[in-house]
């Protein structure tokens, strides 16, 4: 079991450095010191460590060669990008891990408008469309609603080349130039709406309601992100469904880009409950870590409680309807994939994003294996705030399946792309995706087949995919055996 620790090469970084960073306390830390943390964290945890030449355990023959390599990168971000494997679409680095940790807990600056962007056929121009509005935000106060359209920001037309700068820069305020579709073209309606960001904690339970349909009691849950700080509230929402004796459940994950694996496990157990103690998933790490863990170390089972030993409210369903599409990722896909071996998962919508890797926040705390928690109470290096969020593994379901980088697709008769000109009202029975689920529930055989208008709009991205945590899936703990080896 000492193999893992022995394989981590310890280097003395050269005193001569190329530049320094300053932290908030006017202390300085060399670029090479930060680069040393980035390399060692990636060398230990990165899922593709064995596939990246410059992360090999035997890559450097001397401390001097290692120091020279680190000094060849003038910025930690450049080194991190250099070390990423070609197939890696989702790892990233930040220079302020406090902001990252806040984001992982659902705390960020927001104006309250979640939106998508679609490319106008035959043009580089884009149209923005409101997906939903968060309560208690500026967007809510400005009376924006689902389905509203905009084609400009601050008087500039949105295009494929400028949308990032216009909508996803660090500015706290911007003005939307609203538009309408007249049946042939998009036209400005002369309305401008200025939105302002503020510190905001998002409750991911956007809608939780029941209604009667075709002689059945239906539960509908619109869940926008897997944030474990809200697992108690999620449990309460499912408890309300249970108290109302619902017959069917529709879980709407169409705009859910992912989040905590633990929350995905809890939600899956709330949907079921009859599989307590059965295998939910198996974690797959890089070759180095896999060599020191047993199958039991990386096996995760359906629980009976959430944190704090609160009993899970379980519905004991043998079937669940999940609304998911291209903006559904990571932990959303995990629920679909890991429930599939146990119950009938009716996926309605479109192919999901294909994010089947999980990550963990890696910080400059070598005595803890570069992780906070896991029984280690050391603090990260106080002289800088860099952190990395690399992909460190994949989750396989009880059947061993985890290869879905191309996404998870519904059956052909259950495919329904959202039409930005007919989005409907979330949670209402005539909203297209929910309506399709209800038609399947009623068994009347009439499956909605909405067509796009003559002028095609192809969605290309959404606001959730441009947040700090984007479509990340992250774990709260790693196998104890790994931490035991590292901490020896």
Structural summary, described in words:
This protein has 488 residues and is α+β, with helices and mostly antiparallel strands. It folds into 3 domains: 3-104, no CATH class; 107-201, Pdz3 Domain (Roll); 205-449, Alpha-Beta Complex (2-enoyl-CoA Hydratase, Chain A, domain 1), CATH 3.90.226. Helix content is 22%, strand content 26%. A hairpin with a 5-residue loop joins β5 and β6 (126-133). α9 runs parallel beside α11 (331-339). The chain is globular and about 70 Å long. The chain starts with a helix and ends with a helix. Mean pLDDT is 90; it is low at 1-20, 22-26 and 450-455.
How would you describe this structure in keywords?
single chain, 488 residues, alpha+beta, Pdz3 Domain, 2-enoyl-CoA Hydratase, Chain A, domain 1, 3 domains, seven-stranded antiparallel sheet, five-stranded mixed sheet, 26 strands, 26% strand, disordered N terminus, Pept_S41_N
Structural class: alpha+beta
According to DSSP, the number of beta strands is 26
Output the CATH topology of the largest domain.
2-enoyl-CoA Hydratase, Chain A, domain 1
Q: Number of helix segments? A: 13
Query: What is the subunit arrangement here?
Result: single chain
Q: N- to C-terminal separation?
A: 10 Å
Helix share, percent: 10-25%
CATH superfamily of the largest domain: 2-enoyl-CoA Hydratase, Chain A, domain 1
Assess the beta-strand content as a share of residues. 25-35%
Report the major sheet.
7 strands, antiparallel
CATH architecture of the largest domain: Alpha-Beta Complex
How many separate structural domains?
3
Tell me the name of the CATH class of the largest domain.
Alpha Beta
General shape: globular
Mean pLDDT: 90
Uncertain regions: pLDDT < 50 for 5+ in a row?
1-20, 22-26, 450-455
* Rg, nearest Å: 24 Å
Organism: Snuella lapsa
InterPro entries: ClpP/crotonase-like_dom_sf (IPR029045), PDZ (IPR001478), PDZ_sf (IPR036034), Pept_S41_N (IPR041613), Tail-specific_protease (IPR005151)
Protein name: PDZ domain-containing protein
Signal peptide: 1-22
């Amino acid at each position: 079991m000492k193999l893992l620790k022995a394989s981590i090469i310890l280097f003395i970084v050269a005193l001569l450095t190329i530049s320094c960073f300053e932290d908030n306390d006017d202390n300085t830390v060399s670029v090479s010191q930060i680069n040393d943390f980035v390399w060692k964290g990636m060398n230990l945890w990165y899922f593709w460590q064995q596939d990246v030449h410059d992360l090999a355990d035997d890559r450097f023959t001397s401390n001097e060669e290692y120091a020279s390599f680190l000094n060849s990168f003038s910025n930690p971000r450049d080194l991190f990008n250099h070390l990423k494997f070609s197939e890696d679409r989702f790892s990233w680095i930040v220079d302020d891990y406090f902001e990252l940790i806040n984001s992982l807990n659902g705390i960020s600056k927001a104006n309250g408008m979640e939106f998508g962007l679609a490319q106008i056929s035959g043009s580089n121009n884009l149209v923005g469309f409101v997906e939903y509005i968060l309560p208690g935000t500026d967007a809510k106060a400005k009376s924006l609603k689902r389905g509203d359209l905009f084609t400009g920001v601050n008087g500039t037309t949105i295009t494929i080349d400028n949308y990032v700068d216009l909508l996803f820069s660090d500015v706290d305020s911007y003005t939307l130039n609203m538009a309408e579709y007249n049946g042939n073209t998009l036209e400005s309606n002369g309305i401008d709406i200025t939105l302002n960001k503020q510190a905001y904690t998002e409750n991911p339970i956007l809608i939780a309601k029941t209604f009667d349909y075709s002689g059945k009691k239906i539960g509908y849950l619109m869940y926008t992100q897997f944030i474990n700080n809200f697992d108690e509230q999620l449990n309460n929402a499912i408890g309300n469904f249970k108290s109302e004796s619902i017959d069917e459940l529709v879980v709407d994950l169409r705009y859910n880009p992912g989040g905590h694996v633990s929350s995905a496990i809890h939600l899956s157990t709330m949907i079921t409950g009859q599989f307590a103690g059965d295998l939910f998933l198996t974690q797959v790490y890089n070759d180095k870590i896999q060599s020191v863990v047993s199958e039991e170390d990386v096996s995760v089972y359906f629980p009976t409680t959430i944190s704090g030993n609160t009993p899970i409210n379980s519905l004991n369903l043998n079937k669940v309807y999940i609304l998911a599409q291209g903006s559904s990722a990571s932990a959303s896909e995990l629920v679909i994939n890991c429930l599939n071996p146990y119950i009938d998962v009716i996926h309605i919508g479109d192919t999901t994003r294909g994010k089947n890797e999980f990550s963990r926040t890696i910080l400059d705390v070598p005595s803890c294996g570069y992780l906070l928690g896991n029984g280690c109470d050391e603090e990260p290096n106080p002289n800088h705030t860099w952190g990395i969020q690399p992909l460190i593994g994949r989750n396989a379901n009880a059947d061993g399946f985890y290869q879905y980088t191309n996404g998870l697709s519904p059956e052909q008769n259950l495919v329904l792309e959202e039409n930005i000109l007919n989005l409907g009202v979330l949670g209402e029975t005539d909203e297209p995706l929910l309506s399709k689920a209800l038609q399947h529930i009623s068994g009347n055989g009439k499956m909605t087949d909405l067509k796009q208008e003559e002028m095609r709009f192809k969605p290309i991205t959404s606001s959730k995919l441009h947040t700090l945590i984007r479509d990340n899936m992250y774990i709260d703990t790693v196998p104890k055996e790994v931490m035991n080896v590292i901490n020896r």
